[in-house]
Q: What sequence folds into this?
């Protein structure tokens, strides 16, 4: 009897369950498949395709060196090469570790192949699927904080017997600082593409269907050894100050103190528990600040595991959640950052366009926040996130975008919508200083910049600097400031950048007192007014909603008119062909 093992593209780990199910390697055959049909479901970021395919090819080499019989193939679909491989090697049983994404599980179940298929439980998470289901059973609420504390106890992470280290479970209030004045961010660890990766880059360049984003420079790790180096670099250079500034957004500073680990954990190159153990060990050995350690561990042990558990718990209808009934189409500038004159959106979107990455607050409080308050279709937003981000998969984007970012599930996952005016963005970034819009116009004096407390953390994220040689020299010198770095990061708004749709000039020096109100402000108040009845049911929103009582009907009508005019302008531009994808 010959056994076949199909290793999927996000299960790249020598200890993954399907490989570990075979005690001996005799009569065991392994296959890895790159399907061209599968990557045409949406216009994926080119660097995401390069990362996954290069990591797969490097892993195939690693498996062969370890004595496995490995077939790696590129095909139109999955079924055709599987049938040929099964028949050639006389395979009687195909073993596959359970995929993280529900749609792909259905793909496997619907395969018409001449052997039995055995689905083996996934072991690349800390909590097994059945364990999360047991925890969730009979609970009136599925709060992440409850789940996180249970995880700390169960896996004995940052615990002093039965109590949390530091006498508190959560140090989030200490993690909301903005780095003022001159500051030095740690050096980022990147890698030059080797021969295998260069081959993949050329292949992706030549694909004749729609893709997104820039493909070069490509600097991501593609092997476990490189991913471990990124982890060690983060612990030594970034972790000490990670907690304080993890919410900050600074022009030209794409990585700040973030870890860049989420793509590698999601691929399987790193196991989440090994990452946590190394970080906890660094806390004890190096006496690092507890708010940094706890904040980072909460992102993985708490938020990442929780998101996956809720995703698996929900039925298929969850993907169509739209509690606010938002139907506006996704603006074209999400696909082309130069088509917006809002500087915060431009900075984050050009960063995503160039790298496939942005950190959690950029995703939540700029991109998702704008989509939420402006009423964009949740399904279009989630599809864009899935396509654009290098660490995005169905299991992590549905819950993060629909549940957390857009509150489209009506509160199944989050306890309130994370809606904010320009006040929050101005507080946590320098984006407003370089914008044609005035962040102060249209805001209430006593308004709350963000509707509620700091959000539960997403997994740790960061992005890369540009590949300009002159910048590389500067970035390797110690003592450089964020102002110096911004000159060569490629994310600053161009001086006198003329926006061909809205007509604004994005030059801070030209912005006078008569600058128009920031769209975040009128969208924010219009969102609260439009959905007041629904939001009343969310107890944490009542304080914010009370501000609407101080606004007369004429003011609210004017705000609504501005919001409608914004959408009307975008629709008109599309119909006239002014905006093109």
A:
């Amino acid at each position: 009897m010959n056994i076949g093992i199909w290793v999927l593209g996000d299960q790249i780990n020598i200890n993954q369950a399907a490989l570990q199910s075979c005690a001996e390697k005799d009569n065991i055959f392994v296959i890895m498949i790159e399907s061209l049909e599968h990557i045409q479901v949406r216009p994926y970021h080119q660097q995401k395709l390069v990362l996954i395919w290069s990591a797969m090819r490097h892993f195939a080499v690693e498996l062969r060196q370890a004595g496995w019989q490995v077939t790696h193939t590129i095909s139109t679909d999955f079924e055709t090469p599987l049938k040929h491989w099964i028949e050639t090697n006389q395979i009687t049983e195909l073993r596959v570790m359970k995929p993280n994404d529900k749609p792909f599980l259905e793909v496997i179940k619907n395969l018409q192949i001449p052997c039995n298929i055995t689905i083996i439980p996934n072991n690349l998470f800390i909590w097994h699927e059945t364990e999360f289901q047991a925890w969730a059973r009979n609970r009136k609420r599925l709060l992440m904080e409850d789940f996180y504390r249970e995880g700390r106890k169960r896996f004995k992470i940052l615990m002093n017997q039965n109590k949390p280290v530091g006498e508190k479970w959560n140090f989030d209030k200490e993690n909301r600082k903005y780095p003022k004045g001159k500051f030095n961010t740690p050096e980022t660890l990147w890698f030059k593409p080797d021969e295998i990766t260069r081959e993949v880059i050329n292949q992706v360049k030549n694909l004749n269907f729609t893709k997104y984003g820039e493909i070069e420079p490509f600097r991501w790790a593609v092997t476990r050894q490189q991913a471990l180096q990124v982890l060690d670099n983060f612990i030594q250079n970034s972790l000490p100050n990670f907690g304080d500034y993890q919410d900050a957004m600074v022009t030209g500073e794409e990585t700040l103190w973030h870890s860049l680990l989420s793509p590698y954990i999601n691929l399987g190159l790193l196991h989440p528990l090994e990452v946590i153990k190394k970080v906890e060990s660094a806390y004890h050995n190096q006496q690092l600040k507890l708010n940094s350690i706890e904040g980072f561990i909460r992102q993985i042990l708490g938020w990442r595991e929780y998101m996956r558990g809720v995703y698996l718990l929900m039925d298929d209808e969850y993907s169509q959640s739209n509690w606010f009934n938002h139907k506006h189409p996704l603006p074209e500038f999400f696909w082309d950052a130069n088509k917006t004159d809002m500087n915060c959106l431009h900075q984050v979107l050009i960063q995503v366009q160039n790298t496939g990455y942005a950190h959690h607050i950029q995703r939540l409080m700029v991109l998702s926040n704008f989509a939420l308050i402006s009423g964009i279709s949740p399904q279009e937003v989630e599809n864009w996130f899935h396509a654009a981000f290098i660490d995005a998969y169905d299991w992590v984007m549905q819950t993060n975008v629909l549940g957390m970012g857009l509150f489209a599930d009506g509160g199944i996952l989050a306890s309130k919508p994370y809606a904010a005016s320009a006040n929050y963005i101005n507080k946590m970034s320098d984006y407003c200083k370089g914008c044609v819009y005035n962040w102060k116009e249209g805001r209430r004096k006593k308004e709350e910049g963000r509707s509620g407390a700091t959000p539960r953390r997403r997994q740790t994220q960061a992005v890369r600097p540009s590949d300009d040689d002159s910048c590389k020299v500067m970035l390797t010198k110690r003592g450089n400031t964020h102002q110096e770095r911004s000159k060569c990061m490629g994310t600053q708004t161009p001086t006198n950048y003329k926006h061909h749709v809205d007509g604004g000039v994005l030059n801070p020096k030209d912005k006078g007192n008569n600058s128009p109100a920031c769209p975040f402000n009128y969208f924010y108040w219009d969102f609260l007014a439009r959905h007041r009845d629904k939001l009343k049911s969310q107890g944490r929103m009542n304080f914010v909603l009370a501000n609407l009582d101080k606004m007369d009907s004429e003011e609210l009508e004017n705000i609504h008119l501005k919001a409608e005019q914004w959408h009307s302008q975008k629709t008109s531009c599309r119909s006239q062909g002014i905006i093109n994808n």
Remarks:
- The first strand starts at residue 2 and ends at 6.
